[in-house]
Design a protein that fits this description.
Layout: E1 12-15, E2 21-23, H1 38-51, H2 55-72, E3 89-95, E4 103-109, E5 117-118, E6 124-130, E7 132-140, E8 150-158, E9 163-166, E10 171-177, E11 182-188, E12 197-200, E13 205-208
Parallel strand pairs: 1-9
Antiparallel strand pairs: 1-2, 3-4, 4-11, 5-12, 6-9, 6-11, 7-8, 7-10, 12-13
Length: about 210
């Protein structure tokens, strides 16, 4: 498993609903001898949800918690399912509780696969733990003929240690790079499923994801 370092320093990014990519600088947390365990992270996360109603501010508040968890709990880097070769990816849920409105999972992707272009219809955070991954960011560009048209805005290659946050209508696609699977730690708020879409950038159509 690759350590979360690389030729450049890892970064934090927030992707806006318009596909814009803005850096958000944080100071790495100081780690104590006492591990920052998953249950403590879940409690701190719930406190943020109760105290911070704005999605952008929530992302900024949660970034340091995710960084602290991944730096302290190295076991998470091994908590994933081997990707299914038929579909090219796998998902492992790390925590699930009735009425807890958060999805926490690890996702593994095999190289040679590209995700559909999609939004999440909620705020979300993805931290790359291993491998390299290209993210492409899109924005809505409707016109009279094509009300669901989108345009490519930007793309960025994530390295281990990068954390990227998404506002609810941020649109992106994911492509693993290199020869090894990518492993990510994924965190999402409560999804508004009727507003979660898969976009076709050629036909300019959408369908529920």
């Amino acid at each position: 498993m690759t350590a979360m370092t690389n030729e450049r320093e890892y970064s934090n990014w927030i992707i806006g609903n318009d596909g814009s990519r803005r850096t958000y600088e944080t100071v790495d947390p100081e780690l104590s001898e006492r591990p920052y365990r998953l249950y403590r992270f879940l409690t701190d996360l719930e406190d943020v949800l109760l105290q911070v109603p704005d999605d952008h501010d929530r992302l900024k508040a949660i970034f340091p918690l995710v960084r602290k968890l991944l730096m302290s709990s190295y076991w998470l880097q091994m908590e994933y399912h081997t990707p299914n070769p038929k579909v090219g990816w796998s998902v492992k849920t790390l925590y699930k509780e009735l009425d807890y409105p958060i999805t926490i999972q690890t996702v593994a992707w095999l190289p040679g696969n590209i995700s559909p272009i999609h939004n999440h219809a909620t705020w979300g955070i993805v931290a790359l733990m291993d491998g390299q991954e290209k993210n492409r960011f899109w924005k809505r560009a409707p016109n009279e003929e094509h009300p669901h048209k989108i345009e490519l805005v930007d793309e960025y290659n994530l390295i281990p240690g990068d954390i990227i946050g998404f506002l609810p209508d941020a649109i992106h696609s994911v492509e693993p790079l290199g020869t090894e699977p990518t492993i990510t730690f994924n965190l999402y708020g409560e999804t508004n499923f009727p507003q979660r879409y898969e976009f076709d950038s050629v036909r300019h159509t959408v369908k529920n994801f």
